[in-house]
Amino acid sequence: MAALEEEFTLSSVVLSAGPEGLLGVEQSDKTDQFLVTDSGRTVILYKVSDQKPLGSWSVKQGQIITCPAVCNFQTGEYVVVHDNKVLRIWNNEDVNLDKVFKATLSAEVYRILSVQGTEPLVLFKEGAVRGLEALLADPQQKIETVISDEEVIKWTKFFVVFRHPVLIFITEKHGNYFAYVQMFNSRILTKYTLLLGQDENSVIKSFTASVDRKFISLMSLSSDGCIYETLIPIRPADPEKNQSLVKSLLLKAVVSGNARNGVALTALDQDHVAVLGSPLAASKECLSVWNIKFQTLQTSKELPQGTSGQLWYYGEHLFMLHGKSLTVIPYKCEVSSLAGALGKLKHSQDPGTHVVSHFVNWETPQGCGLGFQNSEQSRRIKDSEKHIEVEVRKFLALKQTPDFHTVIGDTVTGLLERCKAEPSFYPRNCLMQLIQTHVLSYSLCPDLMEIALKKKDVQLLQLCLQQFPDIPESVTCACLKIFLSIGDDSLQETDVNMESVFDYSINSVHDEKMEEQTEILQNGFNPEEDKCNNCDQELNKKPQDETKESTSCPVVQKRAALLNAILHSAYSETFLLPHLKDIPAQHITLFLKYLYFLYLKCSENATMTLPGIHPPTLNQIMDWICLLLDANFTVVVMMPEAKRLLINLYKLVKSQISVYSELNKIEVSFRELQKLNQEKNNRGLYSIEVLELF
User: Fold this and answer.
1) What is the pLDDT of residues 16-51, one digit of tens each?
2) Taking phi first (over 0 means left), then psi (-120 to 50 degrees means alpha), and beta for anything else, what does residue 324 get?
3) 436 near 463, Cβ under 8 Å?
4) What is the per-residue pLDDT across 424-449, written as a single tens digit (0 to 9) for each?
5) Which of 363, 200, 356 is nearest to 279 (CA)?
6) Distance CA 640, CA 638 (A)
7) CB atoms within 10 A of CB 309
């Protein structure tokens, strides 16, 4: 369960906090060091473990800092903007901000965002985004306007998903809220309209967000005192279209709707959020921790001196203004369990901290139970498939209500129970609509994929693989068996999602050149120099039509789309391998041929990527080749039809080893170049250098 430990004041110095509090608290490149930017002219670097400042920097009198200072984790330098357009960069050795690097920009900055693993981003008030390096190369470059007139940015967050930067920012215009998601690996900017649901007059007081491999979970604390959740897909189906997203009730009445002071919300992990505000209209402000998985209030701490309604969370520390001083409250949390959520675990608590076993009524629409809402809904489940489909379509067309998640869960549960009771009943179109709401998961409705497997409904199985993040490895392998065994004729009559597949038949001239090249070069190495002469002889004995096998797709495109869904699925190697051994050897060979074909397609370009909207990555391809060989090598090696494929895979691995061997040889030279580059500051303004590599 969650626990708030004894608070301490970070510094006895009273910070210059304006009516809206501090500008921000940001992580430094050291784990226990943080940059605190007040609402005036000063940035202070604090070391939390020592509870003391390590450095302080201020802009000149008459200037004002307009966005929080951040750390550039790639260089260890600090970046801040004052007077909206003036950017400053400095390090710990600098004393006077007026004498450090300065760049005047052509547009006003809303926020600089920086996280580990990538360069900082600069978000301008008009919605445009630039990388810091590109901006410094041309500070006066024209900055485009992205958001509409009178639209104002209210909140932003920066993530790294699969090593790719993802930025989300929320805007408001005339009481309407919009979400913009910027994917920097594809340069895609998607705009969403956030629907407020039944309470059109509600105002969002605070935002926070967490991210997984498919969705951004955007949580908002509304003026009615409730927390709502909106799921935003990381990879939208139609990026060019302005889409609407509905919110669902996550927690009810966590703070008073009539709170006089500001309120704040921040995500602590996947299961917990921290809320700053007054639980009742007349009560003192509190810091509360809620378990959103079990909908329980875990712990709370009174803040008698009041707060600014601001809350920051890094690692195991919560930061807030308590009175006029910056206060730190250490936070501890164990793995979420029902016993912990209900306060059944033993913990030592600070006297000022209260552990609360407050939980929702699971029988109400606000709970997470999957009982039917009323007799009317139960009656509709018993109607005909066509009638059910119409009713579901009507419900999904309406604005989302607070009990949206519960109604979806109840509906799917009722439909699946009837499917098991009546084998002839199978409302597939209705089930597909419900899956696409992004509300369901495998753990919520495990019978769904079980029934689809019995029906061999590959379209529904593909959709589940794309939407559900928690599918067991045994079910993934069961899907793979069907995808490999179903006949081509049956696939032709099936409608599957083809966005991960490109037209393999195009560019045949290039394919022919690649076929010729594979006989000559393997990643820059001549096979004639390869000591595997027997392998070459085996290959050369094959007829010419067989040499085209590697450059023509061994499966039809619809089967390829289904197999790509398998490649994208999450798995644990330990649990997956035993199930892969149950797949027939001829199907394993077919899958290996397809994977080898994908690898050759990746090798056609320097980026080692496949075309398409959401194709498999090179890492996914290579990982599955290894998995299949680990699980089935002793069987596949005995199959005559797999001999040529195994030889190709052997030569592929051998050539890669040769490449890495050569790269290792020049690693020393690159290190010397880095040393020379580090010494360049000692040279004059102009020099000619000759570097010789041996």
Assistant:
1) 555 567 899 999 988 889 999 988 899 999 999 888
2) alpha
3) yes
4) 899 988 999 899 888 888 988 999 99
5) 356
6) 6
7) 19
* 576 three-class SS: helix
What pLDDT score does 514 carry?
Answer: 40
DSSP string covering 310-379, please? --EEETTEEEEEETTEEEEEEEEEPPP-HHHHTT-S-----TTEEEEEEE--TTSTTS---S-S-HHHHH
pLDDT at position 607 over 80: no
Angle between helices 557-568 and 458-467 (to 10 degrees): 30
CA distance 621 to 601: 11
- Write the CB contacts of 445 (distance below 8 Å, at least 6 apart in sequence): 409, 412, 413, 416
Only one residue has tokens 């800092």, namely: 65
- Residue 95 is which amino acid? V
Angle between helices 573-580 and 618-636 (to 10 degrees): 40
CB neighbours of 512 closer than 8 A, spacing ≥ 6? 551
373 burial type by CB count under 10 A (0-12 exposed, 13-18 middle, 19+ buried): middle
Q: How confident is the model at residue 544 (pLDDT cuts 50, 70, 90)?
A: very low
CB contact at 8 A, 411 and 392:
yes
pTM of the model: 0.53
